Structure formats: C-alpha cells, structure tokens
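agent: user wants the full assembly modeled, not chains individually. Plan: 1) parse entity lines 2) check alphabet per entity 3) run joint structure prediction 4) return tokens. Steps 1-2 passed, two entities, 802 residues total. Proceeding.
--- entities ---
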Amino acid sequence: MKRVLIVEDQPDIRKLIRMTLEFEAYEIHEADDGASGLRMALALQPDLVLLDVMMPGELDGLQVCQRIKSDATLAGVRVVLLTARGQTRDREAGQRAGADEYLVKPFSPLQLIDTIERLTTAA
Amino acid sequence: MEHPASPPDPDPADSPASPWQKLTAASHALLRRLAKPLTRRRPAADVLLQAVPDALIGVDARGHIRVASPTVANLFGVEPGELLGTPLSNLLPGLDAPTAQQRTRDGLYLRNTRTHVARFDATARRHGETEFPAEVSLAQVEDGGDLRYACLVRDVTDRRMADGLLALYVRALDCCSNGVLIIDLGLPGQPIVYANHAFQQLTGHDRSDAVGRSWTLLLGADRDQPEAARVRQAMADGEPATAVLRSQRPDGRLALTEFSVAPVPPEDGPVPRHMVAILNDVTERERARLAIAERNARLNAVFDLSPDGFVVFDRDGALLYVNHAFRQLTGWAGDPADGTFTLSQFDRWMRTLCDVELPYPALCDDDGSVGDAEATGPATGVELLQLVRPRRAVLTRLARHNAGGQGESILYFRDVTHETEVDRMKSEFLTTAAHELRTPMVSVFGFTELLLNRPVPEGRKRDVLETIHRQASLLITMINDLLDLARIEARQGRDLRSEPLPVADLVQRTLCSLLLPPSLRVVPPDPRSLTGWVHADGEKFQRAFTNVLSNAIKYSPQGGDIVVTVMEGRIDGAPAVGVRVRDPGIGMTGPQQARVFERFYRADPSGNIPGTGLGMCLVKEILDLHGGRIDLHSAAGQGTTVTMWWPGADAPDAPDAADVPPGRQPQSRPEARTSTEVA
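--- prediction returned ---
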C-alpha cells in the first residue's frame, strides 16, 4: 500500500483530496502546515507528498519540498506541488525546489489520481 | 574729344600769371627760336625742354612733325630724330592737318601772341600700338614759317586712374546698403560733408539737405537720449563707438538706427579731422530680439513651472540650463552660468545618485564625446534611472540631441516613482486577488467533478454540497468586496452622500439585521449614549459597522458577549462619535494587527474561519472617505476592540427633527458648530 502525505492548510481542500483518493489503495496522512508536514514526512517516509505552496508558518511548500529532496533518508519520495500561482515564474521556482509535478489550483481530482498513480508506479 | 570732367580753361587774359599761359608763351617763344637760329641756341633749349615732363612737338602745315623735344622718347618710346617727317597722327591718331586746323580755330585766340590755342583730351599711341590717355595743347603759330603748330602732349594715365578710382569709390559708397556719413570735426557745428544714397533711403533725409548739418538731425526731438550722448563723447574723444539710436524720420516715423562712428586717420598730425559713420536700420532686428527675449522668458517660466526636469548642454558638452524641477528631483545645487560643468561630469555625478543594482546609463563616452546614439538619432529611448540619493526615486530620462540648430543635448527627466509604485501594487494586488479567488474554486471545481464522476452516498452528498455552497458564497462575498473596494477607490468619495444622521437609528438598524450563532450574544449600547448625530453616508456607515461586527462574530468561535458602545470624542479637534465593538475572540498578535488593513490579509489563514481578507480594508476606506478614523486594540487570546470614529453633526434645531426622514435633514457640517454647542 502506497503512503501519501497531504500537506495543506485549507481543511476543505484536504477533505477533497481525501475523498478523491478514497477508492484507491493509498494510506493517507495529513498535515496542516509546513513544519508538521516535514516532521511527518521524516517519520512516515511516504511514497508521495502532496504539498501546498502557500502555507502560513515558518516553512512554505517550496522550502518543505527542498528539504525533502535534499534529505538522503527521503530519497525516492515524490513531491507534487499544489498551488494557486500558475505563472511561469512560479513553475520555475517549483522546478528549482525539485518538485516532480506541479498542479495549479483549481485542479481536477481525476487528473490528480492519474498524476499520483503515474508517479508512484514509476518509482 | 574734350573730357567732360576737365575744368574749364582759365582765361589767360584775365590771369596772366597762370602756369598754363606761361607754358604756352614759353612753347611759343621756344618754337620761334627753334625755327630761326636753331643750331645756335640748341644746348640751352635742350636743357629747358628736358625739364618739362610733357612732349613738345612742332608740326608743319601738312601735319608732319618737324621738330620734337627729347621727352617724346619718354612718352612715345621713339627717339625724336626718328619722328621727323612722320605724320603727327601716328602719335595722336586722328590729329591730321585739317583736324588740327579745326581744333585750333575752335580754341582760344591769344591776342598778344596772335595764337590760336586748343586744349583737349586725346588718345595717344606708344610704339605705334599701346594707347594711353593724353592731354593735348595745340597752338597754331601764325608767323612760324614752316612750323604751323606747336603741340604739347601730357600723359594723364595716372591722373585718369586716380579720377577713375575716386569715381568708383563714390559709386561703391552709393550702392552700399548701409548709410555712410562723413563728418568734418574741424568745421563749426561739425557738419556732415558727405552722405551716401543709402543714408537717404534709411533715414528719409534728403542727402543734399543733410550735408552741412549736424548728424543729430537723425534724432528728431529726442536729442538727449543716452545713446546719443555716447556718440557725442566718442566724437569728442576721436574714438570709435557704436550706439543704437531712437531716430525720427522727417515724416515722424520712429526707427531704431545702429550708428557706428570711427575716426578717419588724418594724413598729418595726431588729431583726426573727420569721422565716418555707418548707419543701419535695426528696427526689425531689435523687434525680433525683443520678441525672442520675451519668448525665452516665457519658455523659462514654463520650464521652471514644469514638474519635470530639464537640462540642456551645448554642442561642446558644457552645461547651459537646469530647471527648478531637476534641482528638486536630484538636489543639484550648482550654477550653470559658470559654464564649467560638462556632460561627462554630469554623468559621473548622476552615477553617484543611482542604485548600483541598476547602473546609470551614461550619456557620453569615456572620452567625453556624446555617444553615437545621441549624435545620429533624434532621441534615445526612454531610460529608467533608479535613484537612491537624495531620496529613493524612479526617474525616466529622455535625451534628445538637437542635430539641427545649435547642436545642444536636451535631457528630460520625469519622476515616475509614484506611478511605478502604483503599478507594482496593482500587479501585486491582481496576482493576490487571482490567487485568493482560486482557493475557494478548488472546492467548487473539485467536489463537483467528484459528484459527476462517482457515486456518493446521500449522507455524504449533503456535506459535499454544503462545502461547495460555502466556498461559492465565499467567492461571491470576495467578488462583492473587491468591487466595492474598486468602486470606492475609483470614485474617491464622489458618490458619497454624507448628511447628518442620528447615530441611534444607524446602530439599531445594523444590529437588527445581524445573524448570530447561538453561542454569541450582542450587548447593545446604552440608549442614553445614542443621542449623537454623525455626518455620514448611511449605507456606508452600516456597511462598515456590519463588517466590524461580522469579524467580531467570526473570530469569536468559542462564544461569549460582543459589546457595542457609543461615545463622544474628537478627530483633530472636531467633534466625533465613536462606535466601539469589543469581542471575546481569539485576538491578534502585534504583527497581525499591523497587517490587518492589508488586502487579503487573514488573521486566521487556516480557512477554518471563512473570509476574504478585504473586510477591514473596506472599513478603513469608508472611514477615510468620511474623514473619520479607526482604532484597533487587540492581544492574542484576549479578544479585539475596534472603534470607528465618525465626524459628528449637529442635531437639527426643530424639536420633532428626529421624526423627519434622514434624507430631508438640513445639511450641516462639523465646522459650522459654534463653541457653545460643543459639549
């Protein structure tokens, strides 16, 4: 069973993602800010992290992504950035942070399923 | 053949001692002596003849030369001996015997010597080919034996040339377009002794009238003008001077005449006797100069009033002009009049003002020459300068090299700090607004896609639909708030309908329409505090009050009492009414309070408390429009107190005024209050 970590400050969006993935065979964990998201990632060693970019607190999504990608113990963890900022500049920032995929809000739940499936089976 | 310019022959009878008569008598006597004992007196005659520069020739009745003085060699280049027996007409073409006879008959008859004498100009021939002007005296000798005529020939080439030159000078002066006068300082009254044609044209004074009069006839009645005094002084000193005189023509018209005098160097002695004056009509020139000066003054005023900076350099790169706005923009304190500030110095100085991150684009190359772009193109593109000194500012610069005209470089600077800042804020606002609108859209779009694509049990369907509805409502509120904000900003208060309104009415109406969760209670203000009137737009008052109340409700999830109080106070010394809302909610930290009026700022970003982040912006905008104020006190976990201060208004005088509909209340402004009415 693949393990998916959702890091997102909006409860309604966490609920949407949970509901999107409920028929798939994923073990789902949730965090509502960057710091707890990173902590949980280190503890859970998930296969994939769905990461909101703009979050309150000390760590935003890009920083969490960088930490995950640069941490040797988390090698192979896939990161999908979820963001409302869809400009080229924002996508480039995501690439630099090492994200595997970049989904712009509002995203399609069906497309999210495809993306997660593709990234987790390739791994 | 007589030269028209020759002076008339003096009558030898009346002036027996005239040189002419002496010469004639001498030649006559000489001829007679030559005819008789020629050989005996020969040496003496030779001496005498050689002393005379003229050629003396004796001619017989047939017009052939019988005798010639040695000087013929000088004049005609032929030895006297070679001439004997040749016709006189070889030397003086056309002067054959009949012509000689005719000429002398037409001439004077000298009774004492019984001689006919004629004097005329002729063309003589040297070497039989070169012609030269000659003055000929021809005498017919009655008793000269075979000598009939005595002929005296004088070469007048030099004199003719001098006469010609003099005539040329006079003609040249007459066709010169400047007026020319010659003034004789030695005669009483220092009269004009010569005036050229242009003088007459320029001044309207007849030149023949002017001669003999003083040059001051030009001045008309205005004889004591200061410029004329300068001319008088210069003439007294024998020094050159130039003055612009207000002159008057004989017909009364006034003109400006440039009058330059210079002493004519005397042939002998140190004191000049003549002055030459050159006149020029400068009326048009002076008028144009004044017009240009006026135009310059106007342009300078325009440039100095301009809020944009202007700097002008001449073709050699020396600073010519700096306007007031440029000094203001950059703090430049130099003086362009000293003429030493160059374009490359200007570049260096500007560079010190600019941000090193955005280097100053130089105008001239390192060697100080103006860059090619400026030299060839009419204008460079707009360049952006990021100033850090004397204050942070963004300027645009436009450089134009005036290739025609004087070749100046004109620099134009415009302060776009404000526009740049507004632009930045606007695009930041749009980015943020778009971002904020996308977030509720995630739920609306995502949940509907799930509902459409998979079976959802009834129980959960309701929860999903509620989420969609909640997020869609949030979108609507956000769009409404954005539009309200945009409208308020765009209208700048022009649609504000301010009037005196009773605060009791406004507060109660707002509180009545409030929807409260069961855990919360609103404590209304003491009715005794509700006697005041505010000067406000009723609709906007309620909008602001509602926003403050709904924040109090949203941020008090644990329930409790929301306390509303109304009090009197002052804004900048003017009476005001305060409406205060105190909630028992989560409160805000210092940094949160500092950002509360920022657009889209949410004290609770978790989304647990729905909101647009625009409500408090709107409250502040509304109060700013009214000239009111907002106070905020809060601490984390301690609740928040917001006080809106509205400008106060007089209660209408009529005792039943409270019953009159608010729209009909008489207008009254806070400053119209008298001091006795202030509580």
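agent: reporting back. The two ends of chain A are 13 Å apart (CA to CA). Chain A has five helices and five strands.
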